[in-house]
Amino acid sequence: MRQVDDSPEEAAFRRALENLRWRGCDAADIALLRSRIAGTTPDLSVERPGFRDVSIITALNKDKDQINATNSARFAAETGQTLEHFYSIDRLNGSEPKRPDPKKKRRIYSTAKSISKAAQNGLWNQPPSTSEQIPGRLSLCIGMPVIIRYNEATELCITRGQEARVVGWSALKYPKWPGRKYLDVLYVQLVNPPHTVKLPHLPKNVVPLTRNSESIEAQLPNDLYMRISRAQIPVLPNFSMTDYSSQGKTRKWNVVDIKECKSFHGVYTCLSRGTSLARTLILRDFSNDLLCGDIDGALRQEYRELNHLTVITDLLYQGRLPASIIQPTRWETIRLYKAWKKTAGRDVDDAPIFDEEDTISPPKDNIHYEIETMHAMSKRKERELNAKEPQKKRRKVTHAEPILANATWASPPGPIWDSADWSCSYDALTFILHWLWVSDRVKWTRIFEAYSSAMSAMARGFASMAQKDPEIELTEVRDQWREVLRATHPGNHPAGMEGADIMALTENVLGFRFMGTRIKTSCRDCSNKTIENAVNRPLTIGPFCSVRRAASIQEFVDESFHPLRVCSFCTGNVFVNHKKSEIIAFEVVEAGDVVLNSRVNIGNWGLYRLAGVVYYGDYHFVSRVITRENKVYAHDSIEGGGSTYEGTLETSLPLEALATLNGRTASLAFYALADRVVAHNHSDTESD
Q1: Taxonomically, which superkingdom (predicted)?
Q2: CB 347: neighbour CB atoms within 10 A?
Q3: Which of 448, 556, 563, 688 could bridge 455 with an S-S bond, Cβ 3.0-4.6 Å?
């Protein structure tokens, strides 16, 4: 069982699940499960951390579709995004109807010869459960949890039931449907895959998904069915799944709705996915009949025989049982075990006696097995067998070349680590400054050129990138400005497999030497100027400065701009002289638990936004980029040139999360003078 905690409550939960397998829960078991119903205590709520955004296991597909639709809209609103709608490509299919299931209501099929606009809209607006779980309209946003519905590449962990998160896509405009798009490629990051996946030019565990075309029977709003061929990316939002889909999963946090379960099997499947009672939440009350009552005799015997086989397997593993006991069938194995227990195994105390009578008698005759090779008959469609004349060839229609609607593989690229000439510190600066430059190429080219020759070389390199392979091109740009920096500051930045002083590196790149506690001051009234040491006092704000003893970057800046003291000549206020800069790098490695504000107001200089953070640990630098829309991407050049989307700052990702990255501590925080964000159409692109 998945439940391994040894507390009394967890032991009672295991007992309840064991009884539930036999549909034999008692009053104590039912009371224990009812204690986990939402609303019983304030902590039992889907709004609580841990339970929030966990996929809800339910019994009915219609409930799953409704939960997915509602929570998709909620997730987009909470992360400050707009849901993007991507439509399937549907074509009428002339295949034969599926064989009717006598247990289900007979289907009535549409006789239409083509898909009209009204019918197409109806097909798109129907939930996925009406079209064999292939959605007509897929509503997505960055960071949304999804579940893969098709075994596309098992070696890449792209398998049915694999959970993932959306990190980007490329989409095309839908011909003859203005304002509508269909997906070309969807990029997702796998969640807890069986093994790490690393594709060229993509971050770790990020894989592309392409459209599949499936022949399905889709239900129209008027309950008629259409046989169509639907092309769509095989994913669904993962805010809910059915008990059938949850089989085989182990969930740390388990949210279930067992009210509509058809039998105790479904209830057991839902509840047994969780690893702990304390992290299990039941959404609604349920009927006692689902948990207790009679079960079929054949099923009871099935359970009993499985328990017998478990005991036999354990004894065989421990060497207490002869290997000859194991036979091709379970009946033979159990029969030989019983015979052994009555004879040679009589004195083996650990071997129990199986006394239960079988409801279904085993076969009396000996079973003889023969191996034969069967030749499979090729299947043919009924209309081909009954055809009296050859089928007419279908006219092939060539559609116009689709127009690109967006290419939102929006993950910022980064350089690739140089193992011969260690480059992680240069990679971190290149990653951050490149995406800052991308936000306004003309503006930042002019600004970069004013800082240093290395920054000027960096801007020229960014402008010359052909964007055919941005990771390789950024790696070349990094090498270019690194060589310029070494030529400008010989001996300061050695080549080879050596570490780097990123503080000195940043100072030289930004062309500003930080003077430590030595500051320049001036009186606003008499203009008297002095140079002094600022012991336990505010320091100079410039392109590079060091933060000490501050709760946040904003507090450090505010303190630095306050009057330092009273002038000894005119009793006016004395202020520290600061150097205005469009880019400010704050050293925070020794600042303690300082909050990296997403926006910092620096007096009359203007509003600055957090553009990136560099982290250090285990002799290696990694970095984060924060876009103008507060989207956060992480980059580790050792893992390749791609970056990983982590969420939206201050919505899905709290400010406190910026303190560390993969066990490494924040060392440098880069702030850039914020420009006015131009409103753009979110339906066209999500990139910056």
Answers
A1: Eukaryota
A2: 6
A3: 448
Domain interval for residue 164: 63-99+106-237
pLDDT tens string 176-229: 898 899 999 999 999 999 999 988 878 889 999 999 999 999 999 999 999 999
> With bands split at pLDDT 50, 70 and 90, how would you rate the model's confidence at 400?
very low
CA–CA–CA angle 140, 623, 606 (5° rounding): 85
Which residues neighbour 159 within 8 Å (Cβ) at sequence distance 6 or greater?
Answer: 148, 151, 152
| Residue 407: inside a domain | no
Across 452-468, average pLDDT: 91
Measured CA to CA, the distance from residue 518 to residue 501 in angstroms comes to: 21
3-state secondary structure of 632: strand
Are the C-beta atoms of residues 90 and 117 closer than 8 Å to each other? no
Of 320, 126, 337, which is closest to residue 216 (Cα–Cα)? Answer: 126
For residue 667, what are the contacts with CB-CB under 8 A and spacing of at least 6? Answer: 502, 587, 588, 589, 614, 615, 616, 621
Task: Give me the pLDDT at residue 523, please.
Answer: 85
Which residue, of 495, 524, 539, is where some domain finishes? 495
Any idea which of 287-296, 357-366, 447-456, 567-576 has the lowest mean pLDDT? 357-366
95 & 190 share domain: yes
> Tokens representing 366?
């000996």
How many domains does the chain contain in total?
A: 5
Distance CA 257, CA 261 (A): 8
- Per DSSP, 37 falls in state B
For 7, the token pair is: 């507390």
pLDDT band for position 466 (cuts 50, 70, 90): confident
Q: Is residue 682 one of the residues assigned to a domain?
A: no
pLDDT digits (tens, 9 = 90+) for 486-495: 999 998 999 9
Write the single-letter amino acid at 80. Answer: G
Asked if pLDDT for residue 410 goes beyond 70, the answer is no
In the chain, count H helices and then E strands.
14, 28
Whose CA is closest to 233, among 166, 162, 148?
Answer: 148
State the pLDDT at residue 448.
95
Q: DSSP strand E in 248-337: where?
A: 254-256, 280-282
Euclidean distance between CA atoms 111 and 89, whole angstroms: 20
HEC-encoded secondary structure of 43-56: CCCCCCCCCCCCCE
Q: How far is CA 627 from the centre of its chain?
A: 19
Contacts of 590 (CB under 8 A, 6+ apart): 546, 548
CB 545 within 8 A of CB 584: yes
pTM: 0.69
Residue type at 613 in one-letter notation = V
Q: Which of 317, 335, 359 is the last residue of a domain?
A: 359
Residue with tokens 């509003």: 607
Q: Is the CB of residue 150 less than 8 Å from the CB of residue 209? A: no
Of 88-97, 384-393, 510-519, where does mean pLDDT reach its minimum? 384-393
Classify 325 as helix, strand or coil: helix
Same domain, 558 and 581: yes
Residues pairing with 632 in the sheet: 626, 647
Distance CA 429, CA 668 (A): 10
Residue 313 and residue 285 share a domain: no
- Tell me the Ramachandran region of residue 603: left when phi exceeds 0, alpha when psi lies from -120 to 50, beta otherwise: left
Is 392 domain-assigned? no
